[in-house]
Fold:
Amino acid sequence: MANILDVEALLFDVFGTVVNWKSSVIKQLAQSHGIPEDILAATPTDWDAFAVEWRTKYYQQTKKVSESGIGSTNIDVVHRQLLDEMLETPRWQHLSAHWGDKKREEMTRFWHKLDGWEDSSRGLYSMKKDFILGTLSNGSARLLVDLHADLPWDIVFSGDIIGSFKTNPKMYLGAVEKLDLKPHKVAMVAAHRHDLVAAATHGMKTVYVRRPTEDAYLTAEEKAAIKPRADGGEFDLVVNSLTELAQLLESPE
Amino acid sequence: MANILDVEALLFDVFGTVVNWKSSVIKQLAQSHGIPEDILAATPTDWDAFAVEWRTKYYQQTKKVSESGIGSTNIDVVHRQLLDEMLETPRWQHLSAHWGDKKREEMTRFWHKLDGWEDSSRGLYSMKKDFILGTLSNGSARLLVDLHADLPWDIVFSGDIIGSFKTNPKMYLGAVEKLDLKPHKVAMVAAHRHDLVAAATHGMKTVYVRRPTEDAYLTAEEKAAIKPRADGGEFDLVVNSLTELAQLLESPE
Structure:
């Protein structure tokens, strides 16, 4: 059956696109940080800033590994290393002594328990009838299996399964090859411009999902180009939710 | 929550264990073989024997690749090569001229459309609440995604994803590592003795599923050992269906 993108499979970025990492991690930090109240009162701790810094460092590290091939492709290892590094910096040093190895491991696992955006589960279940649905995430296989959100993947492609991180070409081409499809029969769905730009260089279709927590650092020019190709933009489709994507894919061409 | 096997994840062999390859392939051969009736009348063709021979050759080839590391780990490639070889043999030569490249490709894809045993889907859905469910199959990722049966996998481990075939240790250890579990926290579920014997050598738990089409070539001694360890047998559990397995895993220890 033809669809607006003329694809057979959809591959989804997960952090930020399908699950709301920011609210989930901040909630877990706020609920179970285990830091004595007097320490926090003396040096007020902003869990929002903590989560954003952790996430930003993670993004920088995956970029480095994807470009150099050096470094772990297991997200738990990366998250833990970055957490340890953060706790050595002046801003977060006051927390360091209170978090031993066990607590730091528990915090690293916070990233396994993210909630979906409210449209994600419903959108995926609608699309599952007509498409192969996979992750194409820098998360580890186990992390993607553990997520709190109810996400009916047909297949999980992860950093540790493919052995790299996006935006290394191996990630896109490896997944497309395993699906035994031509790249133009697969769409990359993401809330991040750089991920879709990379997917497009390999001939994949692109769907940009607008998410309030993501792509905060785009230039005005880049932001302006987030429009469907039909309107002079960079991507095949631009949507506000996965339910909107499901509807678009169902409508006759 | 404790369970009778004390595991967190179950990895399933697929061909024969979860899907009924034999009846599915015979049905497809009988329905859409495309051979003129006079040819078949002159040399009566037994589709049952054809399917069994194809399957047996496939088993021998995966064994060779798993031991030598030489040969494709993509099941479509293997099935096609074996089909071409079969059609050169005296027994099936009368069919050869009638099946061109396109038809042979279509027949190779028959293996993507297998039906489940009648208990499979229900059993897996019951177990999904409490366990991580994965395939550990020599099938390709795309084949496992394409199956007709409704199988709610959390994760797909395949020959082409891990880059070998069972019973190469890489298959068992690779999957267990990606699940970030100790081997004894993972059970291999299969209708084939050799698969479970291999899994056990790596410390995995073992569940034997009795299926009428499988393990036809066991010795009387081997057959007799298909009993739970508690009864002096080789395996942790022996069941007749995946619904029975689900029930056993739910019952208090």
User: Anything to note?
Assistant: The interface with chain A takes residues 76, 132, 140-142, 144-145, 152-156, 160-161, 178-180 of chain B (CB under 8 Å).
